[in-house]
Design a protein that fits this description.
single chain, mainly alpha, Ammonium transporter fold, 2 domains, 15 helices
Length: 500
């Protein structure tokens, strides 16, 4: 508690205002703590994102020493960018997604959804290091993904090399260490199941959520990651690829379609919240949501541009496309609200920006800036109707619109990648051949649609099986009493706002 709030309350405690002063003391102190916590979080991330590339810059000017565990081919610039991108993507889960989701739920559940995001940062990080990275990127290409090549990070970190007489770092792609690739991809492994949590917010058991995310990460995310990004049968340019393969620069299929479609299955199987459709359930703190959306926007630069795995022109193109698509989405959604409801909202602007970011994710490294704007506008409009009209007609309770934004937005982005991908950005077929439908090539969009269908069927099918098993063994949902009381108290024994 700050000194100003203490002395103000102390003054009010004296005399006849003693009880009012105590109340004022608690309120001001609580507000101060919340604001200070948020400011410290933002300051911490700014320091991290400034410190990592700065240290790398100074390190690049120092002469190499004999014991330096770097391979001769390592690019300090590429490595610094990838480490900074890893920090940006981690920031997307917490505080980004935690605040975005936390503001959208009712105040009795704010800590519950924030705890899910924060806990998954720890749980999925350890799981990825022990076995997840090996499943996703170990072994050979093809459909087989169950590999223990990198189990417990074997062969990932630095090892002593007798021939070189020094520690040597295994390299992933010419200029970055395998260790850097592992930690960058691990941040995707964290946020993807966290996105699903928005569908069953305010009603799933915390224990069930944790077990679900472990199983889902290993048996849904890892196979898709292997098939798309590790020379599997869904990747363009791989011999024997299904329908010629597809393009996914940063996770349209692997992250957004998989999480969004799984979120729909979760919402349908766990059922609607008590009072859904009857009682008002407005967001309790749109200030949190707006701040979280802003952090997601910034973090997405690491998510998308970092997927170039280098600090070159591809990263620049992905960065610009990402920003313009988000900007267009942030315009389109509020305009749709203005047309249909008479007023634009901050929630609409935030949702539109996220929709634009989701849509451009598979395409950002393959399209020019102007098509990125078109994709953002399309995402804002399509996802608006998915989260309002479609959701209302079907009657499912996707509490935080994980399916409407990520499932629909990711599908739209994957298909439009087949339309707007261009040889001027990426020579996908070699020899300067036309790439997307806009250039007269229809084969890519067929591959994109097939990849979308496979991702949808696989993700939804496996998610259904996982949930059925967990429902029969652990139970999916908290009791009615716990749901009415709120998950903050019933699941965690804490309150988010002791002063309200």
């Amino acid at each position: 508690m700050g000194p100003s709030s203490f002395w103000t309350a102390h003054f009010l405690v004296s005399g006849q205002n003693r009880w009012c002063g105590v109340q004022f003391h608690l309120i001001i102190g609580g507000v101060f703590k919340v604001r200070t916590f948020l400011r410290l979080q933002v300051l911490l991330w700014l320091l991290v994102l400034t410190f990592v590339p700065t240290c790398a810059l100074f390190a690049a000017d120092e002469p190499a020493v004999a014991s330096e565990p770097e391979d001769d081919a390592l690019s300090t610039g590429d490595n610094a960018w990838m480490l900074a991108s890893s920090a940006l993507v981690l920031m997307m889960t917490a505080p980004g997604l935690a605040m975005f989701y936390g503001g959208l739920v009712r105040k009795k559940n704010v800590l519950g959804v924030m705890m899910q995001c924060f806990f998954l940062m720890g749980l999925m990080s350890v799981l990825w290091a022990v076995v997840g990275y090996s499943f996703a990127f170990g072994g050979e290409g093809g459909w087989s993904w169950f590999s223990f090549e990198y189990f417990a990070m074997t062969g990932v970190g630095s090892e002593w090399n007798e021939a070189a007489g020094r520690p040597v770092t295994p390299m992933y792609d010419a200029s970055i260490p395998l260790l850097t690739h592992m930690v960058f991809q691990g941040m995707f492994f964290i946020i993807t199941p966290a996105l699903i949590c928005g569908a069953f917010a305010e009603r799933m058991k915390f224990s069930t959520m944790a077990v679900f995310c472990i199983i889902w990460g290993l048996f849904v995310y890892c196979p898709l990651c292997h098939w798309v990004w590790d020379g599997g049968p869904l990747a363009l340019g791989v011999e024997g690829a299904v329908a010629g393969g597809a393009l996914d620069f940063a996770g349209g299929t692997v992250v957004h379609i998989s999480s969004g479609s799984s979120a729909l299955v979760c919402a349908l199987l766990i059922g609607n919240r008590l009072g859904f459709g009857k009682d008002p359930m407005p967001p309790h703190n749109l200030t949190y949501t707006a701040m979280g959306a802003a952090m997601l926007w910034v973090g997405w630069f690491g998510f998308n541009a970092g997927s170039a795995l280098s600090a070159g022109g591809s990263a620049s193109g992905a960065f610009v496309a990402t920003h313009l698509s988000a900007a267009a989405g942030a315009i389109a959604w509020p305009i749709m609200e203005w047309i249909t409801r008479g007023k634009p909202s901050i929630l609409g602007a935030c949702s539109g920006a996220v929709a634009g970011l989701v849509c451009i994710t598979p395409a950002c490294g393959f399209v020019l800036p102007m098509p990125a704007i078109i994709m953002g506008l399309a995402a804002g409009v399509v996802c608006f109707y998915a989260c309002t009209t479609l959701k209302a007609k079907l009657g499912y309770d996707d509490a935080l619109d994980a399916f409407g934004v990520h499932g629909i937005g990711g599908t739209l982005g994957a298909v439009l990648t087949g339309v707007f991908a261009t040889k001027h950005v990426y020579d996908g077929y070699g020899g300067g051949a036309s790439l997307g439908l806009a250039e007269g090539n229809a084969s890519l969009i067929i591959g994109q649609i097939v990849a979308v269908i496979i991702t949808l069927v696989f993700s939804m099918g496996v998610t259904f099986v996982i949930l059925k098993i967990l429902d029969a063994t652990m139970g999916l949902r908290v009791s009615q009493e716990s749901e009415v009381r709120g998950l903050d108290l019933s699941e965690h024994g804490e309150e988010g706002y002791i002063f309200l």
